[in-house]
Write a structure and sequence with these properties.
With 248 residues, this protein is of the alpha/beta class. It is built from nine helices and seven strands.
Length: 248
């Protein structure tokens, strides 16, 4: 725990729509939230806006696909606020394209950013969690990691890989009070999704049985439950939040 005896939560990919909602929710729940970013200019604009809303969060920068940079990030967090008790692996990218035209760089960049990053962050977080007898890891996957998606062989493979990672690590850490779970959002009303052409957006919404997009706040709500003491018996699970778009 941190120097003020509050649990420390690290959220990777904080500056996106879902990341922002998670940061705000966990802060409101009383955690010390550390916001990770990759793009300094975007992070500074994001931080200014959050301060206007009453949120003053410590920021850390790293390429989470780089093992050494992640190690330095965790050392920085420990020195500034304390050991990470809660890790939300939310960072990720897309490099879409049909497989027959997909370059190796499109493949590798997504696997590194979306899946190898989960290994990197968990590898540096897990031992202190096990030693402390408490830990929460939430891996933010995607509905397309469950069902697949045209033009997203790389992204779907990375997000599906999260599920196997989650289940296996959960078995290794369960007896020590450390839970590992996955959240798989469907289409969420982030700035990125709302920026697509109106006709495409209508097609997306038409595929969702609930007839609407999800909200970042709905993702943050379920994560706030998973990281709480109330969810101590929940591990190795996947929470699908997709409006009925993929059911099983």
């Amino acid at each position: 725990m941190d120097k003020n005896n509050k649990k420390v939560a690290l959220v990777t990919g904080s500056t996106g729509g879902i990341g922002t909602a998670i940061c705000k929710k966990l802060h409101d729940e009383g955690y010390t939230v550390v916001a990770h970013y990759r793009n300094r200019e975007k992070a500074e604009e994001w931080n200014t806006k959050l301060k206007e809303d009453g949120y003053d969060l410590p920021l850390v920068m790293a390429d989470v696909s780089n093992f050494d940079e992640v190690e330095k990030m965790f050392e920085d967090i420990k020195n500034r606020v304390g050991t990470v008790d809660i890790l939300v692996n939310n960072a990720g990218i897309t490099r879409d394209g049909s497989f027959r035209k997909m370059s190796f760089d499109q493949w590798k960049s997504v696997i590194d950013a979306d899946l190898t990053s989960v290994f990197n962050c968990c590898r540096h977080a897990i031992n202190p969690m096990l030693e402390g007898g408490f830990g929460r890891v939430i891996n933010v996957s995607s509905v397309n990691g469950q069902r697949g998606q045209f033009g997203q062989v790389n992204y779907s493979a990375a997000k599906a890989g999260m599920h196997g990672f989650t289940k296996s690590l959960a078995m290794e850490t369960a007896r020590k009070g450390v839970t590992i779970n996955t959240v798989s959002p469907g289409y969420i009303a982030t700035d990125m999704v709302m920026a697509v052409p109106e006709d495409i957006l209508k097609q997306i919404i038409a595929e969702v049985p609930m007839g609407r997009l999800g909200t970042p706040e709905e993702i943050a709500e379920i994560i706030s439950y998973i990281v709480s003491d109330k969810a101590g018996f929940v591990t190795g699970a996947n929470f699908a939040i997709n409006g009925g778009q993929h059911v099983y």
